[in-house]
Design a protein that fits this description.
By secondary structure, this protein is of the alpha/beta class. Helix content is about 60%, strand content about 5%. The C terminus is likely disordered.
Length: about 500
Amino acid sequence: MRWPWLLLSLVLVGNLGAWLGSGLLPDEAYYWVWSERLQGGYFDHPGLVAWLIRPFTELFGDVVWAIRLPAVLSWLVGAILAYDLARRIYGDPLAARMALLVWVSLPLTQAGFHIVTPDAPMMIFSWLAIYLACRAALEGREVMWLAAGVAVGLAMWGKYPALLVALGMLFALPLSVQGRQLLRTPWPWLAAVAALGAFMPVVRWNWQHDWVSFAFQLHHGVKTTIEVNPLEMAMLFIGGQMAVVMPWSWVAMVVAGWCRPYAVPPLVYHLLLLAFALPLLVFGAAALTSEGHANWPATAYITGSVLLGGALARWLYPVAGPRRWAVALVIALFLLPTLLLNLLRFPHWLQYLELDLPPQRTQFSQSFGWQQVRDEMMSHLAQQQAQHPLAEGCVVIGDKLQTASMLAFLLQDSLRVTAAADSRISQYTLWEQAKPFAADAFCLFVEQYDEERDIREQADLLHQGRWQRRALLRVENPDRSQRWYGFFLPQSDHADHADHE
C-alpha cells in the first residue's frame, strides 16, 4: 500500500516545479497590492489573503514564490487534515489514504496549489472548521465547537462563501439525537458568537464603506431574473463542477454522499453531507440566474474528498480482498488530470502546434512578457525624469486593475500606481476616492490589448484626449499567442518619437 505515497510525491514534485518556474499572475499581483495596504476588507473580497501574504513577503521579500506560500499552505493543510479526518471517522488507514489521494489530485486543488487567491485562506480555515467540528462530535469534546466557530469566522474573512460551512454545521445539528442534545447546551451558540467575532474586521470595514463589498458580491453572484433556459444554465453549472473535480470524481462524490456508512455516527455524517451538498445546491440555484464561476462551491470538495475516500476504501477493498483491476483504474483516473494540468501550466509545448491561440488560452501564459513591459516602462519613466526632474515618483496608470497591479509589482511601489477611472470599480476606485491624486501627478498610462483591433480603437480614442501613444510593445507568449502593450504620455509632453514594436 505504498502507491498513494508514491503518487503524492510525484504530484508534489511536479507542482513544485510549476510553482517555482512560473511568473506572477495579474490577479495575484492585485492581492499583493492589498498586502502592501492592509485593511480589514476590500471591495472585491474580504482581506485575509492579504494578511497571509504579508508575513511571508516581510520574511522573504516581494518575490513570487513567497507571495504564493499561502496557496501551498492551503494545499498542505488540506492534505494533512484529509488523511487524519478520514482515519478518525472510518478507523481505516485505507480510507485515509484514499481521501488524501482524492484531495491532492483534484484539478481544483491543483490550481489552488499554484495561485494565491482568497480561496487559499477560505480553504485553510474551512478545513480546520470541519475537522474540529467532526472531532468534537466524535470525541464529545464540546469546547472544540468554540474553536470550530473561530475557524469558520476566519474562513469567511477569507471569502464569503465560507458562510455555507457555518450554515451546514447549523443545519446538521437538528438531524441527529446527538446534535439536538448539543443545541440545548451553550456551545453551538458560543461558537456562533466566536465566528462573528473572527469575522468582525470585515463587518467593520463594510460598515465604514457603506456595505459596498457585501453589495458587490451579492449582485455579482445572483441576478434578479431567471434566465430563459434554466435547464441549460443548470447543465453549465454541473459541467463546470465536473471540470474542476473531473466527471468521475464528481459523480462518485455524489454517490458516496448518499451512501452513508453504518460505522459513522449520524451527526458526523450529517456534518459531512451538508458541508458537501449545501454549497452545490446554493450555487446551483444561483447559476439559474447568472453564469457563475466553477470555483464558487469549492468548500464542498473538502468533505467530498473525505466521503469519497471512505467509499473508495469500501468499494475497492472489500473483505474478500482488493479488486486489483479497479485499484489500477482508479489510480489512472486520478493520475490523468494531474498530468494534464501540469502540462497546461507549461504552455511552451503548444508552440509546436499550428494553432491560432487567444492570449488567455493557458492561464500561465498571462505571466509571461512582463519583464519586457517593465523595461519599456522604466525607459519612459527615466526619460520623463531626465526632462522633468520634479516628475520623480509620478503616478502610473494601468488600463484595468490587473494591469495596474502588475505595474505596481514591477515597480515594487503599490502607492505609485492606480487603475484607470473608466475601468470596472475595484479597490483602486475606493483608494482614489479616499485620497485622490493631483491632476498633474500622472505621467504614464499603460494599456494591454489582446487583439489588434483593440489597438486601433483605443489609439484613436486616446489620441483625441489627454494621452498620446508613444510606444507599442508586442509580446509573444510561449504558446505563440500574442499581446500588445501601449505606452501613453500626457499630451502636454511634446517629446517626439515614433511608435515602435
